[in-house]
Amino acid sequence: MSAIEYRVRAGKYLMFELAGERYGIDAMRVVAIIGIQPITPLPQAPRHVRGLTMVRGKVVPVIDVRLCLGMPEAEETAETCIILLTAGTSQTGIVVDRVHNVVDIDDRQFEDLNEGIDTDAILGIARLDTTIVTILAVDDIITFTRAGMR
User: Cα(136)–Cα(78) distance, rounded to whole angstroms?
Assistant: First the structure.
């Protein structure tokens, strides 16, 4: 039994796509889904931090999740969007290729991860019919990003 197993819980997850693969995040953390908009680069920020944008009058950091996960950059398309997430009392945006839907995932759908797999940003792996979905740990992605910006 891996340590990651204790972090996984049943609930509602927003499904999205990166590089043709399905990912999910805790839907309760999602504030909004917005189209891609101008992002001001942040000097000396880590490569995966795209910069800052304005959402409803607030300045919000924007993270490229592809780069957080070690994937190559991608060209933006009409389906590229920003998922706005709560992070304590603030908000953070993550750029994704495409948003799908919200699904309920129960404990029986989660699979154990093999020991030795780097799971810093991964909350768990779930089976949805014939699709494998990687569930990301929102707090770990945001913490990793904020640590890199200090």
Answer: 24
Q: How confident is the model over 112-124, as pLDDT tens digits?
A: 676 656 566 788 8
> φ and ψ at 71, to 5 degrees?
-90, 160
Provide the residue count of the chain.
Answer: 150
Q: Which of 84, 80, 81 is nearest to 31 (CA)?
A: 84
**d(C-alpha 23, C-alpha 137), whole Å:** 11
List the one residue out of 107, 84, 110, 109 whose CA is nearest residue 95: 84
One-letter identity of residue 122:
I
Q: What are the pLDDT digits (tens) for 63-95? A: 999 988 889 999 999 999 999 999 778 899 999
Q: Is 34 exposed, middle or buried (0-12, 13-18, 19+ CB in 10 A)?
A: middle
Helices and strands counted in the chain (H then E): 2, 11
CA gap 47, 2 in Å, rounded: 30
